[in-house]
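Exam revision sheet. Question 4 asks you to relate a sequence to its structure. Input first:
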Amino acid sequence: MPRVERKALIERIEEMRSSRVIVYVTGDRTPWGAQIGNDALRPLYDHIRNLDSPQALDVFIYSRGGDIDVPWRIASGLRAAAPRWNVLIPWRANSAATLLALGADEIVMGPQAELGPIDPIMNIRRPGDPSGQGMVEEAVNVEDVMSYVRFVKERLELADPRALGDSLGKLTDRLDAITLGNAYRTHSHIREVARRMLASRSEPAEDSTMKSIIETLAEKVYAHGHAIGRQEAGALGLPVVDASTELDTAMWKLLEEYEDLMATRNPVDPAEAVRTEDEWREPGVLGAIESSWGVHEFSGDFMVRGQRQMPANLQINVNIPVNLPPGLNPQMLPEQLQQLLQQMLQEAQQGLIAQAQQAVNDAMKAQAPLVGAEVAFRGGGWRFTS
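Answer key, structure tokens:
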């Protein structure tokens, strides 16, 4: 959707809400996914500073999550810019986006809007085999670690120190001491950030309500992908406001345009993308921060590169003879013909190189089977347009 039309929708929502609107959307086109990150703070602050000290700010957000340290920085910047700030949620505001919503004075949710648990995920590296030679990356839910400890102590009621040690030893066999320490630190940190977010609202809830909200979102919702709709969110004690039909229609329309901008409804099958060519590339957008003032797009190239299993001996056949006629001595030719002959040989050499490269590619496709695909987003960066 052209910028001018998105701007009109943003201004329409501002008119309905008597506020200024900042959009923060992170893309989730399969198999690529963007997250709320520290790199978004600088462009976001540009939008905050160029909205002329509004009395109310609305953050239109769509995100599957991200860095848990970023929401507090965003909330602090918003609170410093306006007496009240709110979030507008047409659909997904999961994980770190839910954490951000906890600091809002109003959480405006459409019928399809959802929050989610704030239990963080850690990415760890551990030995892939008993010898410790290979390392593998693995995502570990922090609350899974803490729940296992509670399970051993509370459910199994192990009183014998040896039995308790054996049970906890199963955990240390999987995760090293530093990772376990990091899990505990993150467990405590997410609760502290959530408490600070809730307490930063212009009208904070009572301590008991804040404690219940944090325990539910960080611990009692057992599935990380669980969707918390507006009724459940309101029952938790969050300041949920149902979007009017008119507002919901405008919010959903704006979301659809960002889906078009980021091609989120056009997934790519990596194996199919490189079935005929070893590299597939397409320019695109993976994130957007926008207001009536301007737009920052996180743009670059979606890329898939095929991975092949190379044979022990790659057989390449290149048979392109380039021979001069028998008995021809180039030095005996006139200078003009020598130059012409040299030019012809250079062109033939360039053609030979191109055909040799094609021969290598053909040999790899025929003799080196495709065993996987590397997915990446290359050249990504925030770029501003007015």
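Marking note for examiners. The CA atoms of residues 127 and 135 lie 4 Å apart.
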